[in-house]
Amino acid sequence: MDQDWEDRVAAAWAAFDDPRGERAAGLRAVIDALVAELPGDSPLGPFERACAWDSTGHPDKAVPLYREALALGLDGYKGRRARIQLSSSLRNLGRPEEGVELLTPELDAPSDELDDAVRATLALCLSSLGRDREGLALVLEALAAHLPRYQRSMANYARALVAPEG
Questions:
Q1: Rg for the chain, CA atoms, rounded
Q2: 70 and 112 inside one domain
Q3: Cα(130)–Cα(34) distance, integer angstroms
Q4: For residues 55 and 62, what is the distance between their CA atoms, to the nearest angstrom?
Q5: Handedness of CA 126, 98, 17, 1 (dihedral sign)
């Protein structure tokens, strides 16, 4: 879509500060109106609608919309966001194994500013499956890159958490 449309979507999100209150339905209505401007086969429509449902406490309504957006070819940065958000929603719905399956390939995707969000969400999914050491390793690995010191040590500790014992 064009930049004007993207700017209006960004403005709708920027104005929203009431995730579960009376303004939640208003956000969804604004997003629905913006989506109505898109061609019917645009993956942006289901993606933005999924985000609106998810952000207002309805992951059950968001999941099929995220899947639809990805099936319609949502890729790049927004595709990665959709996979992160879908994984989180699946975890919240008690299906963390699907989140792990969806996000694990993202560890090998080209690096961008969403890398830490991938690791954090994957860590939550792993923890929900009782795989806390793997989740902690991912979080420490992500954190290590941001530390002013001890980066090497933390990265080594992260690897040691999941290394086969021998």
A1: 18
A2: yes
A3: 41
A4: 9
A5: positive
Whether pTM > 0.85 for this model: the answer is yes
Domain of 150 in residue numbering reads as 131-166
Give how far Cα 160 sits from Cα of 95, 134, 135, 154, Å. Answer: 28, 10, 13, 10
- Find the DSSP H helices in the chain: 3-15, 24-35, 44-55, 59-71, 76-92, 96-103, 115-128, 132-144, 151-162
pLDDT value at 24 more than 90: no
> Same domain, yes or no, for 39 and 89?
yes
List Cβ neighbours of 138 (8 Å cut-off, separation of 6 or more). Answer: 119, 120, 122, 123, 126, 158
Q: Is residue 79 part of a domain?
A: yes
Tell me the pLDDT band of 138, cut-offs 50, 70 and 90: very high
Burial of 166 (0-12, 13-18, 19+ CB in 10 A): exposed
Residues 77 and 138 in one domain: no
Same domain, 101 and 146: no
- In tens, the pLDDT along 56-95 reads 999 999 999 999 999 999 999 999 999 999 999 999 999 9
Residues 35 and 94 in one domain: yes
